[in-house]
Design goal:
Blueprint lengths: L1 H10 L3 H4 L15 H13 L5 H11 L3 E2 L7 H6 L3 E6 L2 E6 L6 H7 L2 E2 L7 H11 L2 H4 L18 H11 L5 H23 L1
Parallel strand pairs: 1-4
Antiparallel strand pairs: 2-3
Helix pairs in contact: 3-6
This protein binds zinc ion.
Amino acid sequence: MEKIRTMIYEKILESEKRLKETKVIQINEIKENNNILRSYNKLYNKTFIGGQYEWLGRLSKEIGELELCVHKDDKAHYFLEKNVKCEKDINGDFYIIDKEKSDGDIANVFENFKFPILEYTKVQMMEEIKEKGFYEIMLNTWFCHNPKNGKPCGMCNPCTYTIEEGMGFRLEKLARFKNRFYRIERKIKNALREKM
Ligand SMILES: [Zn+2]
């Protein structure tokens, strides 16, 4: 993150004044909230939604003005797309939960966030990044949950999503190869589970 920060400072005029300090918060420091937990579990039972949205929802009650970069290929997009409205400020368009038409559980978890890139795909983001000259910075972003020797593992969910969302070039050949086997193995296991 420090490397990315330095690259941004070098590339964007006055970004040192605009970019806030990084604040580290441990998950166990965030206040419990049974209301959010209940709503998250209900959503999870409908279809998979990452566990981070439960504690992020709780965090959003403690810190205002949080932006959540859910994008079009994300699993959470499915929950949000029919429950948001578009608004505008000096930084451009963003989405927020539309409380008048939103499902109560979705509002409970997501109502304190702004979604600035909800309608972007990862590939669109990359095209815009290239256009604006920030490609080198993007190559230093991180997504893998279990890196091996500082390189993406190819086996975790974010690695799988990175490949599925058209950004497979971010992983080395061996990691992509492992990912293909991992997905085949998972399909076989799921098929066997359904038969049992
Ligand atoms: Zn990984």
